[in-house]
């Protein structure tokens, strides 16, 4: 009985394992068949319970990915190019302690060269504190899409500014005179609870990471912040 139980457990465990197969994809050029790659195909037994259609849809997705591979030609010189490091803009102006931190530590870390810094570089920050205001020198511009404020849908709750991890979105109260001097194209609406004042949302594109938290937290039935 004990051996029978072991055999049953083995069969059940084995049936739960993925079943792999290799699909060969080829192109035909001038009568010759050229193999362009092998794509692993996986069939999960649990998917089989949902029907052959679901399994076939997974197979079709794999097939589509393999057939839509695009070749990109790169310069021959790339084979021997040297790493020039990441670009670091010149740091000037501002408080002395902030400029020193940015030059000596922040710029190296952003260039992925933090491991080259000696321990002596950190003696002034032994308690773990760093000067505030260093983000002004760290404009990476890494977001593919950034938030766009839809003023017609805004209820001025400011939640998008509250959740933004990099202070990209900031609400601003303006007088009519200040709005007239604002950059061209600045959108503004009447501020709730403050007659005569205007309300606008500013977005710093170079600070944005494109995380989308602003869109997710918007409570309006129609979001006032969209990623574009």
Question: Can you put this structure into words, describing what you see?
Answer:
The structure is a single chain. The protein has about 230 residues and is an alpha+beta fold. The chain is built from seven helices and seven strands; from the N terminus they run H-E-E-H-H-H-E-H-E-H-E-E-H-E. It has a three-stranded antiparallel sheet with strand order 4-6-5. The chain has a two-stranded antiparallel ribbon with strand order 1-2. Strands 3-7 form a two-stranded antiparallel sheet. The radius of gyration is 29 Å and the shape is flat. The termini are far apart. The N terminus is likely disordered.
Number of helices: 7
Poorly predicted parts: 3-36
For the residues shown, what is the average pLDDT? 78
**Based on CA inertia axes, which overall geometry fits?**
flat
| Secondary-structure class | alpha+beta
Q: How large, in whole angstroms, is the Cα Rg?
A: 29 Å
For the secondary structure, the number of strands is 7
Order of the strands making up the biggest sheet: 4-6-5
Range of strand content: 15-25%
Largest sheet: 3 strands, antiparallel
Separation of the first and last Cα atoms: 65 Å
List the helices and strands in order.
HEEHHHEHEHEEHE
Fraction of residues in helix? 25-40%
């Amino acid at each position: 009985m004990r051996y029978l139980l072991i055999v049953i457990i083995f069969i059940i465990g084995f049936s739960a394992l993925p079943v792999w197969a290799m699909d060969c994809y080829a192109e035909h050029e001038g009568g010759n068949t050229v193999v362009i790659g092998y794509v692993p195909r996986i069939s999960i037994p649990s998917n089989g319970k949902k029907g052959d259609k679901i399994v076939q849809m997974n197979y079709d997705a794999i097939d589509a990915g393999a057939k839509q591979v695009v070749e990109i030609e790169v310069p021959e010189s790339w084979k021997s190019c040297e790493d020039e490091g990441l670009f670091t803009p010149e740091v000037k102006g501002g408080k002395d302690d902030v400029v020193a931190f940015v030059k000596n530590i922040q710029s190296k870390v952003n260039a992925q060269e933090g491991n080259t810094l000696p321990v002596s570089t950190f003696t002034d920050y032994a308690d773990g504190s760093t000067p505030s205001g260093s983000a002004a020198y760290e404009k990476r511009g890494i977001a593919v899409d950034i938030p766009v404020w839809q003023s017609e849908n805004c209820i001025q709750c400011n939640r998008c500014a509250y959740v933004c991890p990099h202070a990209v979105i900031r609400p601003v109260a303006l007088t009519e005179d200040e709005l007239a001097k604002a950059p061209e194209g600045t959108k503004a609406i009447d501020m709730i609870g403050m007659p005569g004042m205007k309300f606008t949302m500013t977005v710093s594109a170079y600070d944005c990471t494109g995380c989308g938290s602003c869109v997710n937290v918007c409570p309006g039935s129609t979001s006032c912040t969209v990623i574009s």
